[in-house]
Amino acid sequence: MLINIDPLLSPDLLHTLRAMGHGDEIAVVDANFPGTSTAKRLIRLDGVSVTRATQAVVSVMPLDEFVDVPVVTMEVVGNPDEVPPAVAELRAVVGDRGQCGTLERFAFYERAKGCFAIVQTGESRLYGNIILKKGVVRS
What we know:
RbsD-like fold, 6-stranded mixed sheet, 29% helix, globular
C-alpha cells in the first residue's frame, strides 16, 4: 500500500506512468475501443468509467506544458462539434491544465497506435476516449 495514491492506479498502471517520458502519450478509452488490436501496452480497468480512470491518471501525471494541445478526444462521427456527455466530463477532469482538442475517429485510432500505452475502461458511453501527453515532472 502507498499513501495518497489513487487506489485505481494498479501496480501495472503505476509502472507504465512512471516509465513514460516527457512527450509520451497515454490513451484512456471506452469499452468499445479496439484496445487489444491497437495497443503496444494494454492495461484493463474493466468496470471503471473513463472519467474515473482519467482522474486517477492525471492525479500523478503532469500534462505537457510545451505543446498547444496536450489533450485530445475523439470527434463524433458526422457531427464534429457535438460534445457527448463522456467528453464533457473528461474536459472537466482536465480543467485548465491543458487545452483539449479533438480528432476524427480514424485519426484518433492512428494516434492511439503510437501511444506508450492504452488504458481500456469499462466505459459504456460512446466517444469516451482521451489521449494525454505527459509533461515534465518538476522537483
